[in-house]
Amino acid sequence: MFEQIERVPGDAILGLIEAFKKDTNPQKVDLGVGVYRDAKGNTPVMRAVKDAEAQLLENEMTKTYIGSHGDPRYGQAVLPLVLGEGSPVLEAGRASATQSPGGTGALRLAADFIATQLPGRSIWVSDPTWPNHLGIFPAAGLTLKKYPYVDGNNRLDFDGMLAALKQIPEGDVVLLHACCHNPTGFDLSRDQWGQVLEVLKERKLLPLVDFAYQGFGKGLDEDAYGPRLLAENLDEVIITSSCSKNFGIYCERTGCLIMVARNNEQMENIRSQVAIVARENYSNPPAHGGSIVAEILHSPELTATWREELTEMRDRINSLRRDFVEALKPYGLDEKYAHVAEQKGMFSYTGLTPEQVDRLRDEFSIYMVRSGRANVAGFSHDNLPYLAKAIAAVN
Ligand code: LMR
């Protein structure tokens, strides 16, 4: 039976990790998968995480199941982080948290929930979007459609986006990136979020907000502007949040599906359905990542350390963006790539073509996604001169 099965190419983003490992060029640069890197190119364990793990080692009493919604302490900590301390949505008991295996797991829960509980609705994603969105929703049986996000000059096409949203059939689901848009790095302004909200209301669309990079754009609260605005002004919102990135616990797969309903009773109804979806996928989420986050966010000292470390990471990324543009100045390319300094988060849609990306890999051992997306955290003061020279060579 198995002889009929064809081999397929691996995931384009994850495949870069392997290709990079195999490359023996000492000057190689990894701008592929979205993980934070420090000045030495390492992805260190955060101090707050190490401390929390030490406490867990000391105090953990059991490894028993934590239930389909995960550790309640994790949910209690993530809800105010995402929706805001004292959020009216929380006060009204309208929001439910379900711990998930990473933000990807939360997306799959959302997809299965929509497929089973809201059948017949299509999901609309930005063009471009995180390539895995294109896989997750159809895998759950949903029809996936696209709205424009970037224009021909490689800039945010907000007018095109808004015009397209106005045409979406009533009741469909619209996926929005809360901040640090992956792959482009182009985020909506507050005013633009306000305009999107009006269209969502008018067209009775259900927003699904993917919130994978909270704290990497402008700040923990600033980055949450969009999801909070929608949750406070709409009856129903789905948010998929991740702590894998902002706590640097990628391999612990630490996400959360947040369902916002009209009132507490409807929230409990939805919550009961989400538990079934989780049960049918993996039963209970793995505990360790959620325990780390809960340990940190329930301790004022650890929270302060973590916030400080996250701010360092954000500031470093933002200064690398400016330094990248500066490094291109001697080649007369600073204006062409000026947008890199303005984008937000880990990623930059550089505007490099797939052919240029191939040449950078083959001739310079510089690895990035073929769409031209670079992980800005992979820049460093050591590799920027080399990168600038290579980019000039392929321009
Ligand atoms: C990325 O886009 O690089 C990250 O979200 C990691 C992944 O799973 O693709």
Features:
7-stranded mixed sheet, Aspartate Aminotransferase, domain 2, Aromatic-amino-acid aminotransferase, Aspartate Aminotransferase, domain 1, pyridoxal phosphate binding, pyridoxal phosphate, 395 residues, single chain, Aminotransferase_I/II_large, binds (2S)-2-hydroxybutanedioic acid, 2 domains, L-aspartate:2-oxoglutarate aminotransferase activity
Description:
There is one protein chain. The protein folds into two domains: 124 residues, Aspartate Aminotransferase, domain 1 (Alpha-Beta Complex); 234 residues, Type I PLP-dependent aspartate aminotransferase-like (Major domain) (Aspartate Aminotransferase, domain 2, 3-Layer(aba) Sandwich), CATH 3.40.640.10. α2 crosses α11 and α2 packs antiparallel against α12. With 395 residues, it is an alpha/beta fold. Helix content is 45%, strand content 13%. It starts with 11 loop residues before the first helix and ends with a helix. The longest helix has 28 residues. α9 links the parallel β6 and β7. The chain binds (2S)-2-hydroxybutanedioic acid. (2S)-2-hydroxybutanedioic acid binds next to loops.
